[in-house]
Amino acid sequence: MGFIRKYLYETMGKGLDLAPLGDIAPNPTRLLRAICKVESAGGDPRHAMRYEEGFYGRYIAKSSSSIVLDLYLRHGKELATSWGCMQVMGLVAYELPEDPLPKDIGPNALLDPRLCMYFAVQLINCRCIPSAVLAIHRGLHPRTEPGAVAAIADAYNSGSAIDRMRPEGYIAKVLAAYEEAE
To answer: pLDDT tens, 66-93?
Structure first.
């Protein structure tokens, strides 16, 4: 692993707020490395974008939100494309509550690994960790460090760790990558 990539994981890992998971919180650097490895072959630029037709159908085509419509008129199907080393969905980057992607900047800006990692950390903090805490509390994932990694991976991939969509194959890949990570 190159110095820049290692620096990126370690620096951005400090931004993860894993405190709600208490004593079962995963190592933040290993968690980001694992998700990145599964999402884009560890940041390989050849795997840096993918149009998600199912996401478009569920969240954009059926939306009555004026915000989503405005974004669609500006950026089209790029909203339903996952971008960059962490495969952040265009629409998700615009909807993050704390510091969303500005509407006048296209989602392809997420091809910059630093920007993509920044939004992925926000996504994990505001959506995945709270969902993981609920899933563990409800017994949907075990109350262990691997259980926390699995619940976060579940939420990262499907949007929630407490819904009926459990991407078992994805979770298994993230867990394996987490175990391999330094």
So the answer is: 999 999 999 999 999 999 989 999 999 9
